[in-house]
Every structure is written in structure tokens, then in C-alpha cells.
Amino acid sequence: MEAVARRKAAAYVCRSCTRQFQRQLRRNYSNSAPRPDIYDVVCVGGGPAGLSLLTALRANPVTSHLRVALVEAQDLSKVKSWKLPPNKYSNRCSSLTPTSALFLDQIGAWEHLDQTRVQPYHEMQVWDGVTDARIEFDWAPGSAPVEGTTIAYMNENLNLTSGLLKRLEQLGGVSVFEGANVENITFGEEMEDLDLSQWPVVHISGGKQLTARLLVGADGANSPVRAFAGIDAKGWDYNRHGVVATLEMEGEGWGGEHTKIAYQRFLPTGPVAMLPMPGNVATLVWSTTPENASLLKSLSPKDFVAMVNAAFRLSTVDLAFMHTQGTDQDDEYSWRLQHTSFNPRAIPQTVVGVQEGTVASFPLKMRHADTYIGERVALVGDAAHTIHPLAGQGLNQGQGDVQSLVKTIEFAVTHGQDIGSIMSLESYVSERYTANHVLLGVVDKLHKLYSAGSGPLVPLRSLGLNAVNALGPLKSFFMKQAAGSGTKIF
Amino acid sequence: MEASALRRSAALVARASTRNAIRPAVCAAISNSSTSSTPPTQLQTQQTRQFSALNRPPPNYPGHVPLTRLERLGLFVGSGLISLADPRRGDLIASFAEATATPYFIYRLRDAMLSHPTGRRILRLRPRITSQSLNIPYLRSLPPNTVGRTYIDWLDREGVSPDTRSAVRYIDDEECAYVMQRYRECHDFYHALTGLPIVREGEVALKAFEFANTLLPMTGFSVFAAFTMKKSEQKRFREIYFPWAVKNGLRAKEVINVFWEEELERDVDDLRRELGVEPPPDLREIRKREREEKRRRKEMERMMSGRSGGPEDDVLQKAEKEAEVVAERVKEMKDEVVEKVGEVVGSSSMRV
Known about the structure:
The complex is a heterodimer of chains A (490) and B (352). Chain A is an alpha+beta fold and 490 residues long. Chain A is 38% helix and 24% strand. In chain A, strand 14 (270-276) and strand 15 (281-288) form a beta hairpin. In chain A, helix 3 runs parallel beside helix 12 and helix 9 (301-313) runs parallel beside helix 11. Chain B has helices spanning 2-30, 69-85, 90-101, 105-114, 117-125, 131-134, 136-141, 147-158, 174-194, 200-214, 217-222, 231-251, 260-263, 268-275, 283-307, 315-350. The N and C termini of chain B lie far apart (79 Å). Chains A and B meet through helix 10 of A and helix 1 and helix 5 of B.
């Protein structure tokens, strides 16, 4: 019909007027059925994984022309302007391996992190709470990799997200829908000139609809995107809670300011870890039973501090008993300390205080999605996998996913492929799935191995730990794997 | 971006070099205390460091004698053999108990105490049981069937005193030494609780009970003394007391966790119920009954044989027979006295 009108008009009307007429025609047509708002990438979830994905896409010259959108339920301006006094730290911290840090540096986000709040650590002390078998991850002379001796960087999650947001603002070009809940995800409609029936459409609060060439789910363990894609996540709950807190220590640590040490003791209820933060501050991650966790949260600061000190020093019998006490753990701790022998230099310095309001807990579970991709859908970070925090790998796995997905998108763009098709996404899942699965499995088995309080497993695991500790090359292999700088096996 | 990366790597190199300088010191401090040359702190003295008889470390508590491994082995073999040959050497049985309590067993018993609120309180307050601490006249004034009265009645019946416990010397851990001391001092309360006498048979039965309950190796080894008992006693032990000991010892709560000093006014049956201990048949009664039975049987035999002689026996023959009976009775009584004396002497050494 349009063509007929054009031909008829051409005889009487000049060309420019014809064009204007045509445009009006088209506009009238679009008014009757609104044009869908199509983005190349819609990322649901503005956590570390989602934000670094968008930052990486914007920072990469190949993918920077893509039309991208971010949907986040929280108010991001609050996160961006996040600020705490220099001696106060958030209780949600993660370790970033040098590989993750390097990636963040490549996408230009690392320098936007508040560097005074980032603490690298160089050694790890890990020991068995039942037998005291110990492994010391310190770099033997000559074994240190050329990249440096840093095993990982301790960093507040908010420092990372805030830094990523600042970098994203600097790069610009992202349509941000903050404070917006995902109400529904559907497929698009088939139209005369455009078939969107295979394209996901994100309905957000306020009635806005975003159509995505590629929908990325960075929306956490209960991912709506994963549910939309019909991808099942398998795994189990550990029936454990991770108790976190920001602790004040008596000093900067046994290694001083420049050699910070991370500590982890495996108790039958779960591992308890103390990780260094700048100055006299440390962050606690204590996996324990839900009952113990709720007790710990109910304690007075004095008793909580006593319990944390006890967790790194006293016998498991004493600890079990102290968890049955409603109060007075402080008194009990000072009595038992007189009858317990340990090497004070091999365990963290004494905790002297806990920052107010930082004691919290969250349930621990293991989940792994059956796949990370669907037609026009990709999952990254916690949406794809949830891991026990004992190895401090959760956030790093997410960064690895993002790095791989961006590489996949970049390849599709350079080769003129549709970035949303399963074909072009395939390389992402093949690169990440096995690696993540092995790590999830190893960490899961470690948790189970150390859950035994007695029995034949206990001497066997101690023998194994001592053996690894004695075998230098094997130990440095594990250290390089943990730091993410070792050879890729999977 | 590149410049900042360079700056960072330069900083890392600088950091690494300072670290290298301090690492030996840190490593030395962190590496195992048993091999490093750092002087042991006060807390570390309890750790097993190898030493010889010539440079014995200072004691961990008053009366403590740190032993080398060889000395400990010697103590184990020597005290074990001699006390088996001569069960009256209570001092050697005590040493044997200490030589066999480590590794594991005394720690297990301590952990059993640490897992129990009362056990923990005992370890914290460290009460000692002596005739002074117990206030004997007060115990006598308690109503019958209280724990305290049962205990004192048992002491009186057996003719013993609570002050015969030797001090622990060969257990290195100071707290475990107290646990052993506590076990020793509570031993008479276990007697009172079960009513078992201090004769060899009663001791062995109680040791079997204690082994099932505390798992201390000495108590287990002591059960082998059952083979030195008379045939009839062995049979009784096999059929009554050993099954009782195993059943009750395993079923009962850890008796080490009873704060006896606080339970003195309590009804003893109530305590037995709470602990899950049922008293065995009274051993003294059984032994008395058996002795009487034996005597009656012998007398009856004699009378039967006397009657078989017939009415035509003359007076002389009758008198001779009577004299014979009297002599036999005297001999029997003598035997009984000897046995009783032996029991009293022997039992005082067995009570360890």
C-alpha cells in the first residue's frame, strides 16, 4: 500500500515532501503498535558480576557500540556514594585473586576502588581443629611466582560495586533502570516486519518493557532469569550458616603491615576463617550450624569476642560446650585458656573487639545450574553457581564467568554472529562449566572431609595435609591454583 | 591504565624484597615449635619435647616427674608385672595406672568431664576428697539411705579411711593429672554406690565396672586378676559380677562427672537411678551364706558317718570321734581367720 501511495505521489509532489509524508505514514503506523525497546544486552542484577560484565562490554572497543541496559532492584546511587569512616569496615568482604584483580584492572575498574580499603595477603595458615595438622601457605624462597607473592586481596563487596559503578559512569552509555523490580519475563510478539517471539522481554516495575537480544542473568542464587530460561540448578543445602563480623585485633598481625596472613581452622561444625583487612582490622567468616549461628548473633560483644578467640584456640570439646552456654563465654574462655597449649605465633592475634552491628549470618549452600546458556539467555555468577565460602572463590568464579562471556560476545561481534544465539554462546559454557564444576566439587568434598569430628577419616586427612605441607612443589601448585595464577587444568 | 599497572608491579617487587628479608624470622617463628630453636613459652611446656634423664625439664605441677619414653615403658612393664604377681602393691598399681593412661585414655576421660556441666565445674574448682574435706561426724549424722550415710557405713563396714590415696606423679598434663587424682579419690564412692566390698572379688568386679565406664586401661588390666581367684569365686564372677559390670558400666552415665561432695544429702537410690546403676547382689552376704552352707554340709556329713557306726559303739570310740570333730572345727575356724586377715591386708592394696 505504501509503495502504491509513493508511486502516485511521486508524480505530483517533490521528493523531499514525499519523504516527509512517508515518515509521517510510518509514525502513524508505529503509534498503533508501539515499537519494542530492543537492547543488545540486558543485564538483570547489579552485583559484582553484572556490573563488571557491563563495564567490560563498555570498556572493550569491539563491544562498546552495543546497546546495553542494567536492571537492578536496589538504589544504585546509594551504593555509588557508599562511604565508611577509615577505621570502620563492612562485614561483607570477599577475596579477589590476582587474576580477578588483573581483569578488573584491564577493564579500568581497579583504580576506582578505594585502595586504602583493599588488603592483599601473602600467607595462609590452615589447620585441623581436631588434630592440629597444619599446612602453611607461605612462599618458600624461589617458589614465588613472578607476578608477586599476593595470594589474594581482601576487599569489601561494596567497595568493589561502588568502584565498578564509578567506572561505569565514566564510560557512560548504559541505560540503568535502578530501583526496578523484574515483574515478569516473557517472549516478545511476532510482528509483520520483526519476529520477536524467541526474544526475552523483561517487564520491570513502572510498566517498562525491555527486549533483549541477549538477556544476562546476574541476579543471584534465586535467579528469575534462570527460572525464565527453564534451567534447573542442582545441589544441596549444607545446613550451615556463615557468620560474618568485622573484628578489631590487638595488632596488625604477626607479619606486620607488609606480610598479612589469612587463617582458617577446620572445626567439625565448619571452618572458621579470619582474613586481614587494613590496619588492626580483620574480617570473620565462621561456618557453623544454624543453632550455633543464632547463639553467636545473640551474644554480647564481650562474649562474642571470647567465642571468636576460642574458635582459633580451644579444643572442639570446649567449643561445643561453650555453644550450650547462654552467656559468660568470656569467663569460660579465660579459664580454659590456662589449660590449653598452642603456639601463639601460628594463630591469629587476639581479637579485642567487634565492630557494632557487623555480626550477621547467611545460609550456605551448593548449587550448580545444569547449563549457563539458553536461547538468548546467559547466566553468570551466583545465578549459575553457589559455592561454600571456605576457599573464598565465589566472587572470583563470577569474575571468571564475566571475563569468558565478554570474550564470547566479542568474538560473535567481530565475526558478525548473533550474540544471543546458542551457537555463539556455546564457547562460554564450554570454557567455564567444567572449571566451575571441579572447584565446586573440591570445595564440597573439603567441607565434608572436615565435618568428621572423629573416626578413621581424621588421621587420614591429617596425614594428607601434613604430606602436602611437606611436599614443596605440590604445595606451591595448590597455592598457584588458589591464586588463579597456576596452569589451567580444566 | 598501563602506567598504573606499572606502578603497582613496582610496588609489588619492592614489597616482595622487604618480605624476603623478614621471611626467615617469620618462618622460624611459625614453623612447628617442636623443631624450632625458639624458647618455649609457658604454655608450650606441656607439649612433648624430647629430653633425656640428664636434662629433665622442670615439673608441670608439684610432685610431677617428667619421664622419657624409655622410662615410661620401663614403668609400664615393671609396675605391671610386679603388681600382677603381688596385688598388695597399691603404689605400683597406681604407677601402672599413670603409665598406661596416656596416650588417649586420660584425655578421653578429661573430655568427657569437659563435655558435662558438672564435670567442668569439678575441673574448675578441683575439689579433693580427704577425711578432713568430708566432715566424717556430719556424714554419720545423716539419715540412712543418703549418699553420705551409705558412704560412711561402707567405710565402717570395710574398715577403711579415705586418706589412703597416693598423689599422681607421672602424667604430664597438669589437668589430666587432676582427672586421675579425682578418679582415685572417687573410687570409694563407687564402692559405696555399688556396695561392693574390698575383698579381691569385689575389687575386680568394680574394676570391670570402671573399665566399662571410664575406659582407663589400668582398670581393664586389673580384671585379669580374676584368674588368680578361687575356682568358686571365678565362677561367681563369670556368671554374676562380670555381666553386671559390663552392662552397668556401659549403660551408666560417666560416673566421673558426679560431684560427690554435693550429693551427700541425696537419696542414694535416687542417684543410682539418675546414673543408671543398679547395685549388684550383696557379695558379702553371698560369701557368708556360702560359707555357712559349706559348714552345714560338712557337719551333716559328719553326723551321717557318726550315725552309721551303730548303737553298739562303746564310750571310748564315741569320745574319740567327738575329739576329732572338735579338732576339725578348730581347723576350719583357723582357716576362716586366715582368710579374713588375708582379705583385709590384700584389699587395702587392691583399692586403687
